[in-house]
Design brief:
This protein is mostly beta strands and about 110 residues long. The protein contains no helices and 11 strands.
Length: about 110
C-alpha cells in the first residue's frame, strides 16, 4: 500500500488550498485522514473520513475552515483548506492505517 499527497504550496493568509491524497494497492481500511507537523512541534490530527459512510471528524483548530471529502472510486481523499492562517503552516501528511505519505508543505505567509 502506498499513499501520496499533492497540492501543497505558498498562500497568503485568508487564502485557500486543496490537498489530495491517493492510496494505491490493496487495503481494507475503515478511514483515511490528514495530520500535520509544524516546525518544532509534534504531529497532530487534522481530519479524518470513513470510506463507507463518509463520516468526518475534525480538530477544533480547523473546524469550519477545512473540509475533508473522498472519492471511493479513485481511492482519493481531499482536504479543502479555506481561510488559511499562518498557524496552519506545516507539513501535511496523509494517513491510511499504518501507512503514511511523504508529506506536502503548506506555508501561509504574506
Amino acid at each position: 500500500v502506498q499513499v501520496m499527497e499533492s497540492g501543497g504550496g505558498l498562500v497568503q493568509p485568508g487564502g485557500s488550498l486543496r490537498l489530495s491524497c491517493i492510496a494505491s494497492g490493496f487495503f481494507s481500511s475503515y478511514a483515511m485522514g490528514w495530520y500535520r507537523q509544524a516546525p518544532g512541534k509534534v504531529r497532530e490530527f487534522v481530519a479524518t473520513i470513513t470510506w463507507s459512510r463518509g463520516q468526518t471528524y475534525y480538530a477544533d483548530s480547523v473546524k469550519g475552515r477545512f473540509t475533508i471529502s473522498r472519492d471511493n472510486g479513485n481511492n482519493t481523499v481531499y482536504l479543502q483548506m479555506d481561510n488559511l492562517k499562518p498557524e496552519d503552516t506545516a507539513i501535511y501528511y496523509c494517513n491510511l492505517d499504518q501507512f503514511w505519505g511523504q508529506g506536502t508543505q503548506v506555508t501561509v505567509s504574506s
